[in-house]
Amino acid sequence: MTSTVERRSQIVQIVNTQGSIRVEALAQLCSVSSVTIRSDLSYLEKQGYLLRSHGFALPNNRIMHELSIKEKRSQHADVKSLIGQAAVKQIQNGQSIILDSGTTTKEIAANMQHLNDVVVMTSGLDVAMELVSADGVQVRMPGGILRKNALSFSGISAEKSLENYFFDKVFLGVDGYDLKVGITTHNEQEANLNRLMCDISTQIIVVTDSSKFGKRSFHVIREFSGIDMLITDSGIPQEYLQAFQDQGVEVILADTK
């Protein structure tokens, strides 16, 4: 039987895919009553994941939709490169770090050739491949199930493989960052793995281009105040910059000197 969380995630995906859909059609697709669907839609609307109008569910355009790794690579490439260059300055020889999967963390990996005696755990297949030529970097992967659309590993076996480790830093890519909700991502298993990565790291560093602020996905990784450092670009909205500074989060703008 599908859980409430799984069903609500399914509803968001259906609405975002179809653009709009009637309550009765959703009930049929999810194999539940219209009363249950209305309750789900009420919850999801309050959380900002979708909108309701005259018996229809509509997408909320503030919600980020998952893109393929190919699509992500084509977006904000110059800014991501600068963020990668700024982020690698936070890594010292001899440290152990986690690089989350994603196109921004891949840019960090691309700038690690000069480091020595560094251990990198990464759930990103393309991130690991980027580090093949970095002689001073030992690469480890958690295993698990490969999400081909994202080139990332996740799942229970990936989580189990991390339980007995502890790292100096985790560099976390995000799909969305909302002041009310926090750091979010599209995939439930990936969110679970990201939370564990944060729990076993001394310092949590978020790397993201400014287009992700004010957007959210369905699965929460971390609350707004639960990070130590943010590396982004000068396009970050002023309200977000001020909120981070008020929380004592160090902010580095990679495209300013």
TrEMBL record:
Gene3D superfamilies in the cross-refs: 3.40.50.1360, Winged helix-like DNA-binding domain superfamily/Winged helix DNA-binding domain
A Pfam family annotated for this UniProt entry: HTH_DeoR
Cited InterPro entries: AgaR-like, Carb_Metab_HTH_regulators, DeoR-like_C, DeoR_HTH, NagB/RpiA_transferase-like, WH-like_DNA-bd_sf, WH_DNA-bd_sf
Cited SUPFAM superfamilies: NagB/RpiA/CoA transferase-like (SSF100950), Winged helix' DNA-binding domain (SSF46785)
Keywords: Transcription, Transcription regulation
MF-aspect GO terms: DNA-binding transcription factor activity
Domain of life of the source: Bacteria
HTH deoR-type domain: residues covered: 4-59
PANTHER family linked to this entry: AGA OPERON TRANSCRIPTIONAL REPRESSOR-RELATED, HTH-TYPE TRANSCRIPTIONAL REGULATOR SRLR-RELATED
Name used for this protein in its record: DeoR family transcriptional regulator
Naturally occurring in which organism (per UniProt): Testudinibacter aquarius
